[in-house]
Amino acid sequence: MGYVKENLISGETLTYSGRLHWVASARLFLLSVIFALAGLALVSLLFSNDRRGLKVPDRLGPAVLVPFVLAAGCAGAGILRLSSAEFAVTNKRVILKVGLLRKRTLEIFLGKIESIGVDQTVLGRILGYGKIVVRGTGGTFETFDHISRPLDFRKQVQEQIGRQSG
Q1: Residue 137 φ/ψ region, left for φ over 0, alpha for ψ in the -120 to 50 degree band, beta for the rest
Q2: DSSP string, 38-72
Q3: Tens of pLDDT along 13-72?
């Protein structure tokens, strides 16, 4: 919660924090597995040819590393995507941030929120993720995909709004 904690205002306390669901990086993790398997297949092929007495060209040695480097890069990108997203409810605001290099944020005071919706597919309901739709006064309309436990997030926002008005 680096971004959230750095941007808390005077008298503001964190009441709930959320995160991205692993599904948000599923494609990157799948690509990582595919590249790793391709690398293992290539290593196996090269060693089996070497045992059969077939000459393996020396220039193919470094090429064996390429699929493993790609696998590590995809896995790293997936982990970075998951760890760079922050979703928080405080006693005064809702703070949503995604991205590291290309950062997208929404910070809206609880009193300025008209509604907060949740869209979930069937798979999203089964696995526990969905889309948060924040509608603010003045036409603010922001969506954030692949939020883990979106119904809990909405409930926390509604509870904080209720505490302010009650």
Answers
A1: beta
A2: HHHHHHHHHHHHHHTTPPPPTTHHHHTHHHHHHHH
A3: 999 999 999 999 999 999 999 999 998 888 887 776 655 655 656 556 677 889 999 999
Q: Which of 114, 154, 140, 123 is nearest to 21 (CA)?
A: 123
| Cβ proximity of 53 and 102 under 8 Å | no
- Residue 163 tokens read as 């505490």
The string of DSSP letters for 129-152 reads EEEEEEEEGGG-EEEEEEEESHHH
Higher model confidence: residue 9 or residue 52?
9
Where are the domains positioned within the chain? Answer: 2-20+85-165, 27-79
Pick the CATH number of 2-20+85-165 from 3.90.330.10, 3.30.40.10, 3.40.50.2000, 2.30.29.30: 2.30.29.30
